[in-house]
Design a protein that fits this description.
three-stranded antiparallel β-sheet, elongated, PH-domain like, about 45% helix, four-stranded antiparallel β-sheet, about 160 residues, 2 domains, single chain, 4 helices, alpha+beta
Length: about 160
Amino acid sequence: MDEAVIAESRGKAALLALGAVAFAALGVWLIRNAARTSCPVEAILAGIASIGFFGWCGVIGIATIIRPNRLVLSREGFVLDRPFRQPRRVAWDDIESLFVWSYRRTRLVGYRFREGRAPTDVLTRLNQSLGLDGGLPNGWPLGPDELLALLNSWKARSRPEA
């Protein structure tokens, strides 16, 4: 098998979109009812912020329903392909370790690059402040532990035969 493709769950993307639309609707409600509050300007600003942020989350959720995130595994590495973003290619040779990263109730597969191999972009620097160089988003049909095992097996396959 030369490559494997894992697509994000459309059901989880639909839940994201539904939740985002609900919060955007709450923003509309805040604006419409601002005059009834003790702080109408703050209510309007909160409504606008809610519509802007959650509206964008809804767009991403809908785009992900139409074209789910994809994780493509090969002997060379993996490619994370998501709507509205350039595919992120990571070579197995560049990865020092893969692990399950946890923060509060969030668990995802994280990775650290070998010395001198990490990209110098803003996202990588932000991730490093959290204890990892990169991570794969949630939403896959596999949980973080199963995804980690699968990634480690592909990484092990990438090593040349002795």
